[in-house]
Write a structure and sequence with these properties.
The complex is a heterodimer.
Chain A (H helix, E strand, L loop, with lengths): L2 H15 L3 H13 L6 H19 L8 H21 L3 H20 L8 H16 L3 H8 L3 H9 L3 H4 L6 H11 L2
Helix pairs in contact in A: 1-2, 1-3, 1-4, 2-3, 3-5, 3-6, 4-5, 6-7, 6-8
Chain B lengths: L8 E4 L1 H9 L3 H7 L6 E4 L1 H9 L8 H12 L3 E3 L5 H11 L3 E3 L2 E2 L5 H13 L3 E3 L3 H8 L1 H12 L4 E2 L1 H11 L3 E3 L1 H10 L10 H14 L6 H11 L1
Parallel strand pairs in B: 1-2, 1-6, 2-3, 6-8
Antiparallel strand pairs in B: 4-5, 4-7
Helix pairs in contact in B: 2-10, 5-6, 7-8, 10-11, 11-12
Classes of the chains: A mainly alpha, B alpha/beta.
């Protein structure tokens, strides 16, 4: 497994230990952005985990009772395990560890659910939108993140990405083509 | 290649169908179908993406029901093109055009490749797609490469052989977006029922499509709306 994945896993661990929400967010974005050029299998789960942990640290309800210590310890141990597996190139063990961590986070959030769409789904949506902005197709980003296509379209529709990049023909030429088809 | 299909049909991508349905503009297809001898087609894969999968999700069931109804009533037709091997070839070629750090960049997926393959087999040139990447890959691959370079902050190499092959596969495709459908529908009187609000309605429709993911810019909307004032 690439060194970059091991490094990212260590960063997530350090940031979570230090309660550094800002670094968790940045790491999530950086992992998402490097998925295409580094490793999808490694960077995608780390991006999701980093995003979710950042969101959880923002909300007092996740860490307000006796479960806090238990949850925190579990997360730290799993992150250490992920980092170790990545450093040693044990891809399957890394995948298992990240899956177990994500499942645990889903289960923990479901005990006090406030929204229809949970944090994991939100993370997938953000990553999908980031990848689309980078230049990957809609079906591709949906297939690798598991985000819903409609949600991705709605999300990207609220951004300015089509105003910044994407013009290939002018309006008049497109309209002329459309008129010809329906003449 | 299937016989009997002319240039008077359009193959639809999921992105456009979702944008139209979410903006309550599916009626535009119904209206324009009358001027399209062969009609609007979707592949099995697009049917899966737009109808079969989301109809099981409460949050997106209504969109799927609307599209299923359109399919049932013949507003949309199912293309049984048998395009699997063509789809795989297009996918392989397209995803070996750009390289970063010596690794090929997988820019499109089977959904988009299947649509192009279906169009090829059916002998239709016209594809309805709001999705930006495929459109750029077909119409301006050099712009897509430039964008990828800016995003990855490193050089993106182009395999000219595969680019040439892809261009040959797609050179006669004509791409329209859901926004162009709305514009042509306006010209054909679709928004007349809004009376004095007709021009406002088409402007609102274009913004609606944009906010639902159609790859159109604010300046393009302004340009069209400016031309009809």
């Amino acid at each position: 497994m690439e060194n970059s994945v091991a490094k990212a896993a260590q960063e997530v661990y350090d940031a979570f230990r230090n309660g550094d929400i800002k670094v968790l967010r940045k790491t999530s974005t950086r992992c998402a952005e490097s998925m295409a050029t580094e490793s999808v299998e490694g960077m995608f789960p780390l991006s999701v985990i980093s995003y979710v942990l950042g969101k959880m640290l923002e909300k007092p309800r996740f860490f307000h009772d006796h479960r806090t210590e238990e949850l925190g310890l579990f997360i730290e141990n799993k992150l250490l395990e992920c980092s170790k597996c990545a450093k040693e190139g044990r891809k399957e063990d890394f995948s298992r560890a990240t899956t177990e961590l994500i499942e645990h986070l889903v289960e923990f959030e479901s005990r006090d659910r406030r929204y229809v769409r949970g944090l994991i789904d939100k993370a997938k949506l953000k990553i999908a939108a980031r990848l689309y902005a980078q230049g990957f197709s809609l079906s591709y980003v949906v297939s690798i993140t598991g985000a819903d296509m409609r949600e991705v379209l709605k999300y990207i529709g609220q951004t300015l990405m089509f105003d910044r990049v994407g013009k290939t023909k002018n309006v008049e030429e497109r309209l002329a083509n459309a008129r010809r088809i329906f003449s | 290649m299937q016989e009997g299909f002319s240039a008077k049909s359009v193959i639809c991508d999921s992105s456009s169908l979702i944008a139209l349905t979410e903006s309550c503009l599916l009626g535009v297809i119904e209206m324009l179908k009358e001027r399209l001898p062969e009609g609007f087609y979707i592949s099995e894969r697009v049917k899966g993406e737009c109808i079969d999968n989301p109809i099981k999700l409460r949050s997106h069931e209504l969109t799927a029901v609307r599209l299923k109804d359109a399919l049932n009533r013949g507003v949309l037709k199912l293309a049984n093109a048998g395009a699997e091997s063509e789809m795989k070839e297009i996918l392989w070629v397209a995803n070996n055009i750009f390289y970063v750090n010596g690794r090929p960049l997988q820019v499109i997926h089977s959904g988009e490749a299947d649509m192009i393959a279906t169009a090829t087999i059916m002998g239709t040139r016209n594809i309805l797609i709001d999705e930006r990447t495929t459109r750029m890959l077909i119409e301006a691959p050099e712009k897509l490469r430039d964008h990828l370079e800016r995003e990855f902050m490193r050089g993106v190499q182009v395999n000219e052989d595969y680019l040439g092959k892809f261009e040959k596969m797609t050179h006669d495709l004509v791409i329209i977006r859901s926004s162009e459908l709305a514009m042509v529908a306006y010209e054909r009187g679709y928004f007349k029922r809004f009376g004095s609000l007709e021009k406002k309605a088409v402007e609102a429709a274009l913004y609606g499509l944009k906010f639902n993911g159609c790859g159109i810019s604010f300046s393009e909307i302004d340009e069209f709306c400016g031309s009809i004032r």
